[in-house]
Amino acid sequence: MEKYDWLLISIYIVIASTFILSIYKYKYLNYGMKYLMLYTGISFVVQVTSLYLSSKRINNLFLLHFYIPLSLMLIVFFYKGLFGKTISYKLINYMIAFFLVFSTVNSIWFQGIKVFNSYAISLYSLIIIILSISTFVFLLNEDFAQERKSILITTTWINTGLFMYHLAGLLLFYLGDVLTSFRPTHFRITWLFHSIVYFIQFGCIFIGLWKLPTKSTS
Amino acid sequence: MEAAHEINLLSILVPLLVIVFIIAIGVVLMYQQFQKNIMKQQLKREALKNEHQQELIQKTVVVQEAERKRIAQDLHDELGAVLSISRMQLLQLESETHAPTERIRPIREMIETTLSSTRRISHELMPLQLEQLGLEQALQSLLSKAANSHQLTTNLAISENTSELAWITQLGLYRIYSELIHNSLKHAGASIIDISILREGNQLYGRYADNGRGLSDEKADGLGMKSLENRINALNGHWDFGNHSQGGFYANIKIELKPDQN
Q1: How far is A55 from chain B (nearest CA, A)?
Q2: Is the pLDDT of residue A130 over 90?
Q3: Closest C-alpha among B173, B161, B165, B163 to residue B262
């Protein structure tokens, strides 16, 4: 896998850059984007920790059992800030509560913390895909887009990044077993592809934050 | 040696379709919520806009009436006073033996005409009787004057508690009815006018009817009726009007009194 080390390094660079950029633009971030900043920071920490544990040959899958519920909360809060009053806060809160319960039950009774939590990750990806597609649809509404005019470009980039990664992730987790049943080396290809879309996700978030106007936010 | 695996296409496609279906349902439900809340927000914005417009109309009417009152007062106090003094001085001059009365009298008569016009204009701008005696007396006086100058039978019924109405509400009602009376006499040639004003709690019901020629379609859309409608809207009311089947014009006014109108 050494020939793909450049990809791993670039992932760390892009996540770190995105987090630094979000800190730099902190005062221009609206309510929802601040949660995205936290998501970026936590993703970086988890990535570095995961690499460290892997280098010490320690099972790092338990990190996902904490990272996934936390990520969902932060990303859903980002969307909550974006949607404003157009989507009931109760629905958002129920969504988070349901996932937290599901994820906890899954980690305790079904897929222990030393095992890959594919059920929770699949549901997590499903929720984010629904939210991101809904965002694309909502942005077609003139009033909705007009109220968010100043952050329209930023929102579109960030939403695109989240959508692409979680859609690709869901397909990868779903089709991963099928692909690796052909040849074990396909396992590497699926995880390589995952790394690429992970890079694209943070790349899109970086571009979105870069294009964030620094005069005022809505 | 690689193991041969059977690919069951259905076992791949069906779960994939289920996932796509779940995503589609999720998006549709989100969009329904979104539509509902967007409509709610739009309605709220419209209601707020109407409320502001209503407030603006009311404030405009209040400012207009205050200005009229000021002008009426100035006409009465300043111009009226000067004309009265001039008239009295001319009368005094006329009574002197060597005064050229044939030259003074026309001047005195002109001043009296001007004084009378000043009083009329002042009264039209701000009816003193309304301020001093209230709505019922002011309308009674208006109808009496109309009956004296035209062959007219008038009926007026006002509930006692209308005297407790705010000054601006009474003034608004006075203006509305005086305009309706003017229309009946000038355009409809009516010989009977019925007016009733009933107050029940926070609701005010006004009715007007005459036996004239009725309202033509052209006049129904005219500026006069629009102006009346604006006056009624400024009082937080609405009205309907039309022609009786037996002939004549009617108007029903309903006003929902706000606390500052009581």
Answers
A1: 31
A2: yes
A3: B165
